[in-house]
Amino acid sequence: MARYFLPRDLHPAAWWVWALGLSVAATRTTNPWLLLMIVAVAGYVVVARRTDAPWAMAFRMYLYLGAVIVCVRVFFRLVFGGAEGSTIILRLPEIPLPAWAAGIRLLGDVSAESLLGGLYDGLRLATMVICLGAANALANPKRLLKAMPPALYEVGTAVIVALSVFPQLAESVLRVRRARKLRGGASGKRVAALHAIIIPVLEDALSRSLQLAASMDSRGYGRAGLVEARARLLTGALMIVGLIGVCVGVYATLDGSTPRFLAAPVLSSGVLVALAGFRLAGRRVRRTRYRPDRWHLPELVVAASGIGVAAVMFVTSTVNPMNLNPSLITLSWPALSWSPLLGVLLGVIPAVLTPLPASPHVPAEKVAA
Amino acid sequence: MIELDHVSFTYHGQTEPVLSDVTLSIGEGELVLFAGQTGAGKSTLLGTINGLVPHFTGGHLEGTVSVDGETTRSRPPREFAHLVGVVGQDPLAGFVTDTVEDELAYGMEQLGLAPQVMRRRVEETLDLLGIAELRGRALRTLSGGQQQRVAIGSVLTTHPKVLVLDEPTSALDPIAAEEVLATLARLVEDLGTTVLMAEHRMERVIPFADRMIYVPGTGGVVDGTPAEVLRDTPIAPPIVQLGRLAGWDPLPMSVRDARRAAGSLRSSLGSAPSRPVGAGPVLLSSSDVVVRYGPKVAVRAVSLDLCAGSVLAMMGRNGSGKSSLLWALQGSGPRRGGTVRVDDTDPKSLDSARARKLVGMVPQTASDLLYLQTVADECAAADVESGATPGFCSSLLDRLAPGISRSAHPRDLSEGQRLALVLAVQLSAAPRIMLLDEPTRGLDYTAKAALATMITDLAAEGRAVVVATHDVEFVASVADRVVVMAEGEIVSDGPTGEVLGGSPAFATQVAKIMGESWLTVDDVRSALPQVVR
Fold first, then answer.
1. Using a CB-CB distance cutoff of 8 angstroms, which residues of chain A are in contact with residue B297?
2. Which of residues 274-303 of A touch B (CB under 8 A)?
3. Partner-chain residue, chosen from B115, B353, B361, that has the shortest CB–CB distance to A290
4. ipTM, 2 decimals?
5. What is the pLDDT of residues B226-248, one digit of tens each?
6. Facing residue for A287 by CB, picked from B109, B136, B360
7. Helices (H), A28-58
8. What domains, with CATH codes, occur in chain B?
9. How far is the C-alpha of B477 from the C-alpha of B450, rounded, in Å?
10. A23/A94 same-domain check
């Protein structure tokens, strides 16, 4: 038990599974109580288990974004016609539009039903966004990249390098702009001034990337990648065929009018072929990982709680759909039944049954001295 | 361990070889110091060791280079990762990951070492370099010295037999450089790794170098013990120059050696020369200057006057507020309070084109000011920007650093030449006050001497010059007044002799040997009795 709760960072994928479970649950309902409950659950877990890293602090931004989404949704119902329903609560003068804009209505009567519909809809979308934000706050994005399958190692490295370039670019732009003033740059023509900033910044970036390439080369990057052309061709072909299969399969599954044999069979065989390609590509990699994130019991608990929420929501939606999607025809307080509520509450398990995060993130200002 | 057999190397598109017919044999556990002026071919020579030259740089290599019996001819640099560890000048540019621990493990991951081995080696390396408390930190938040130690650690984890360091301290301030060099000295003693190092702060490495290879720039190399090689190289640390002047044999390699030999010289010298103190009219007066970035105070109510014809050196550790103060005095940096007066105007109240006619400044990364394709274009643009007669900037450049090709690209100039170009561009606006922020960074001895001449000339023309620098020897050779800053305040201010001679932290090598009233080799030379001279 003591070992289970030793502070450590959970596998980032576990948090993503959990968050996706919550957001899938959110797609099944428009009941505002349930949606707010999901947001509360996500927020509680984030507060309980996040570090003080910058990405973890960005959760607040997702909350704001959610609020903006709800407001925009409701506002649009106000502006672009919201007269479906019988309870008109606001009579705005309608702005007549020319004939070619038929089907679009500007202002006019606004009904409570349509406003409520906008609110529910917006709330659902906002909840999904907030769930993704929770995953972002809890899972270190860089560790997630590191947990990619070996076949995608190169892509992961490229992304990590690119991520570290942005702060550097911002820094050099600031520095060069400041230096430009020393040359009296402000009085020059705008295009010339831009030129004077971009050239030194690009030179800086270019020489840095050359240095990085030299450093990576001399530290052995890519030495595991010596495979003969035939093997490379085979893995490439497997991956591409597999991915095409997946695309066709997904399309067919979603579109009811395509022949059924294109759906599940093609999808599953595409996944299989792509996985085989991944495996083959990964097998030839003679690289190892330093302290990889492992998948232990706490990760299973986290993932299971997310999947559990989604599963309960699916089951209840087949039993009693009215609870999950409150009626917009007869206005009433949305009802709430016990089963979906308890289902959503499953999602709060990670706030208790996981070890605390270990990695202390040292903020930059402590170092300046 | 390392064999170079008749190695010649020519860069693509050049006719003259950088290295011609170099034959060297370096044994196990040796520490070899590579010296030479910037651009003489030190980096090229070091690059051949693991095959970055020519596999990465291009060019034509003749002869064979082999490390531990494997030649670089057929195998790319990555195949040498387990044999040769390479550390560059700018640690940050070479980092692949973003935290200390991951960076240390990166090389081992590429070699495919077992996880337990990696774990153990990371711990060992953290302890060896004394960076265990930094393990989880983001690399960008570390200080320069810490970054460079992590960079050294990240190549040590693969247990290379050879460590190649190309000017590992040139981008660091002296305290950080000291940190890194002390770490290296310990590594050499403890691990017995073969270390090849190019270093322009020679004096710090010489005491523990077994061997020195001087690259004069003509293609060949001079090989021998430091004492032999330094006997007649054009670049030499002050200690060696003093030894040559006094005719000591063998040449002293450390302050301790020199001090023991200096007894007779000290007694034969007359009194130390008095250093002239420039005291022209005050050109810039400032009082209670405050600079703050949010809650952080960079400059704490500093008052400073600059006089015509004097060179003021501003010293102090990184982050002590030197740069912030210079930017505030120039007028384009932030200033929260206090007054700055030049000719009864505040440069901050003017637009940047007029402010630079009052106070000129060369920022720390001087190349930020350059953006055109040729030196001639830069000079012409500077004339237009400053409203000077065409050709003025070009004539200034000729006076500062004669012989720079006008068709050259500014990036292709050497560090010192680029600095001269930026200085000429800034002088074309004819300011009477010139501020230089760390101009000595990355300069070799020759370039520093040239810069010293430029600065002395500027002061002789009646300008007030301020130089922010860490380089004590440089300060001793140019400045007549020194200001030391700490935590945004001026902690000491006085004539160079008093400030530098009076404290062991700022004493020059010559002062450590000869006593506090002697700052430079020139001081000693001028006081030597005619007979000895």
1. none
2. 286-292
3. B115
4. 0.85
5. 989 998 888 888 899 999 988 88
6. B109
7. 32-49, 54-57
8. 2-233 (3.40.50.300), 236-268+502-533 (no CATH), 282-501 (3.40.50.300)
9. 11
10. yes
